[in-house]
Each structure stands twice: as structure tokens, then as C-alpha cells.
């Protein structure tokens, strides 16, 4: 089936839940939690706690993921060369994330939430693209913790990051 | 202690959060952070929000930023009218999708054009940036097909965010008339949102004027 039939924006991920069509990965995570979650720990009902999770999700989409995509995608998909100014914007976003983790073992407090799942998909992708995480102590220990505590991490993300890397290597090899 | 909103009127996300406060009906104490004077980089502000963006909301012991998270928080905490951000998972999901669309697609595509003009001495608009914006306007037009508002037939917080964004680029002089659903919806929002003229239109026009004054002739 053509994805544009159910999602005019034709992006993945898109879900079809018995005829209910939804896209935007973070909106999907929230929907699955609200509709099927057994308790609210991944996405607390308390508005103040929830707002922190939301803030991290928007930070991932609008800042962290966005700046990495802006640096890597033109190189991977359009044969551009790396732009150091864009790398500087990434480093700035990473500094912010590092500071958010200073007093907080997980992205939005003391336990795993949807924010961690979204952010770990970003960080693991850029790590495999060769971004150096070593200056970011808090991010490194957060990353190790999320890999261990996110249920099904390897199956849902770890393996696929490797596939992404293979795809990128093929694309870059074809350009040469 | 009341609710404080750190705000700058030319910023679309900032106006979006203020519009959300208006529709929710919560009084906020508006504190101006002048981005042209780089007031967001002052130590006091970075202590509040390390990402130093407007809007930022302070409510008692909680600090919230990102306009979309602020809108959701205000609606969840203070709205009497639950239809602004319903708790039904499906209804809410559509609103969330629209909010993420604003945050990740529409607003960044406008920012790519306008930020360099406002802050980096750019005076051109490039075709490679026009096309993605036209595409995003087209998506919004499709979302509005058969709907009065962006997430259905009722006004929600997603309208606040998106209309703040669209009214800014319209004030720059971008032609949105090819997007008939979008044009009609902007007028509808201007009537449906209390205090729209002051909370949004003035800042959108100031943004439009600032961008236009720095563009070379014939860019639009
Ligand atoms: N903000 C969206 C981004 C989705 C997105 O851009 N997906 C890309 C792949 S990473 C896509 O499907 N592109 C195909 C297209 O735009 O036609 C989300 O988080 O779901
Ligand atoms: N996704 C954020 C975007 C906020 C944002 O980028 N704000 C800009 C003004 S439009 C800002 O405060 N920039 C100042 C800075 O980054 O130093 C939101 O919706 O709040």
C-alpha cells in the first residue's frame, strides 16, 4: 500500500491501528503509551513531570536530532562535504543535553521515560556515524544505562543502527 | 505566585505559547527577552533555561520550555475547556502530530530562510529553501481539508502553535493564497482566539517587517 494514502506527509514511521493512522515518531510513542500502557511511568500523568518529558522530546526533534541530520544527511544523501559550522551546532546541542543530565540519571528524571527512547535512537545513530561521545561523560553513562534498561533495546534499535551504517557505507561507496 | 512567560513577540514559538495561554484563559506575567540584544544569553536566563530559547515558562517550582510543551502543560493544568487538548488518546495523538509537525517541519523550514536574514546579513531567499517551505504549506493545506481547525472541527492548542508560525511568514509577504484551506483557517483562528491581534498579529507583523527590511528587492 502506498504510504501517502494514509499519511499525506509520507514519512516513516506511520502506524495503522485498526484504521487509525498516525505519524511523527514521538506522537506515535505517546499514543501507544496512552492507549496501551499498563502504568504511567514512561509518560507520567502529573502535568509537571509530563512537561519535562515533552520538553526533552521536542528538544530531540527540533534541536538534537535536527542538528545531526543537518550535518550528516547532506553528506550521506547528497554528496556534500562536512560543514564544520554545522558540527559546532551539534556540539552546542550536546552540551545542553550533557547539562540536562547533570542531576538526572535519565533524560527526564530518575527513571526511564519516552524521552530516553527517542533520544537514544538519535544518539546511537550518530555514534555509529562516528560522532565522538568521549567528551560527554553524563551522556555516556546515560547511554549505557538506557541500553541496559530499555526493554528489547537490541532488537528494536541496536541491530538496526548497524543496518543503517551498512546502508550509509554503501551509499558513500557508490558515490566514489 | 503566578505564572511567568519569558517571551519575545517576533518569535513565532513564543507567540504560539502566548496564544495557548489566551485560549486556556490563564493569566501569565509576560517578561520580554530581547533576542536582538541577546538577552537570552544572560547568565540569569541560562540558569533558568540552559537552551536559552523563548518561550520559557516558570510556574512555581517547574520550568518548561519549548513552546509546544508549554502549550500542552497550560492546557492540561489550567484549561476548563478540555477540548483544547482532549485526553482521549486518539484525539490527543492528532494534536501531538500537528505540534511535532510545527516543531520539526514547518517552523524549521521558515527559520532556514528567515534566521540568516535577520541575524547573519543574508538578503536572498534561495530556491532550495523555497521548495521545502512550499511543500510544508501544502501538507498543512491537506491536514485542513474538510476541517475548520488543524486537528478537526474544534480549536486546539495545535492551532495556536501553527497559526503563530504561519502568520509570521505571511507577514513577511509569502504568498499563502494558493493554500486556500490555510488562508481561510488563519482568518478563522484570528476570530476564534481571544486577544489574537495583540498577542499574535502585532508580533507577526514586526517579524515580517524586520525580515522584509533586510531582504534585497524582488525576493518575494
Ligand atoms: N519527525 C518525523 C520524521 C520522519 C521522517 O523524516 N522520516 C523519513 C525517514 S528518517 C522519511 O520517511 N522520509 C520519506 C519522505 O519524506 O518521503 C518523525 O519523527 O517521525
Ligand atoms: N522548538 C522551540 C524553538 C524555540 C526557538 O528556537 N526560539 C528562538 C526564537 S524563535 C530563540 O529563542 N532563539 C534564541 C537562542 O537560541 O539563543 C520552541 O518551540 O519553543
Automatic annotation (TrEMBL), chain A:
Domain GST N-terminal: 1-40
GST C-terminal domain location: 46-171
Pfam families (alphabetical): GST_C, GST_N_3
Family matches, as Gene3D superfamilies: 1.20.1050.10, Glutaredoxin
InterPro entries referenced in this protein's UniProt entry, alphabetically: Glutathione-S-Trfase_C-like, Glutathione-S-Trfase_C_sf, Glutathione_S-Trfase, Glutathione_S-Trfase_N, GST_C, Thioredoxin-like_sf
Classification via SUPFAM superfamilies: GST C-terminal domain-like, Thioredoxin-like
Subunit structure: Homodimer.
Name of the protein: Glutathione S-transferase
From TrEMBL, chain B:
Gene3D superfamilies given in the database record: 1.20.1050.10, Glutaredoxin
Cross-referenced CDD domains: GST_C_Delta_Epsilon (cd03177), GST_N_Delta_Epsilon (cd03045)
PROSITE patterns the record matches: GST_CTER (PS50405), GST_NTER (PS50404)
InterPro entries, sorted: Glutathione-S-Trfase_C-like, Glutathione-S-Trfase_C_sf, Glutathione_S-Trfase, Glutathione_S-Trfase_N, GST_C, Thioredoxin-like_sf
Segments crossing the lipid bilayer: none
One Pfam entry name: GST_N_3
Domain GST C-terminal stretches: 88-217
Domain GST N-terminal residue range list: 1-82
Top-level taxon of origin: Eukaryota
Description of how the protein assembles with itself and partners: Homodimer.
Protein name per its UniProtKB record: Uncharacterized protein
